[in-house]
Design goal:
This protein has 143 residues and is α/β, with parallel strands linked by helices. Helices cover 54% and strands 17% of the residues.
Length: 143
């Protein structure tokens, strides 16, 4: 199985640095940025990222605004919202905006990996369906 590629987005540097090290030890490809705007820039540069782990509360462009922009520019990309300040309403809003799931900080690394693996799998399956549909469209025209 190919290595999962994650983008971590959080303004808490200590949390981000620790999580990056823990994921890299598990052979996960990790990119880390400290803001929503940096996340969008990184996603433009690195089309191989499959899952974004996105903090909700950040200065400037917050997680919800970033989620909306990610889903607009990269509709197949899966986003897991992560926060220490969650409410049920915030979680529901995130899911309505297209988040794959919602986790609370501090988050168990195995739970995070489980959710991220499921999100990456969903993205890969969606991409496979698109490729299959394009192949059918092309081969259907040639008959």
């Amino acid at each position: 199985m190919k290595t999962m590629k994650l983008l971590l987005v959080d303004d808490e540097r200590a949390f981000l640095d620790t999580m990056t090290k823990r994921l890299e030890k598990r052979q996960i490809g990790v990119w880390a940025v400290y803001s929503g705007t940096d996340a969008l820039d990184e996603l433009e540069r690195n089309k191989g990222i499959e899952v974004v782990i996105l903090d909700v509360k950040m200065p400037g462009m917050d997680g919800m605004e970033t989620l909306v922009e990610i889903k607009k520019r990269f509709p197949l990309l899966e986003v897991i919202m992560l926060t220490g300040h969650a409410t049920v309403e915030t979680a529901i809003d995130g899911m309505k905006l297209g988040a794959f799931d919602y986790l609370m900080k501090p988050c168990d690394i195995d739970l995070l990996l489980s959710k991220a693996t499921a999100a990456a799998s969903k993205k890969r399956k969606q991409e496979e369906k698109i490729v299959e549909a394009r192949i059918k469209e092309i081969t259907g025209r040639q008959i």
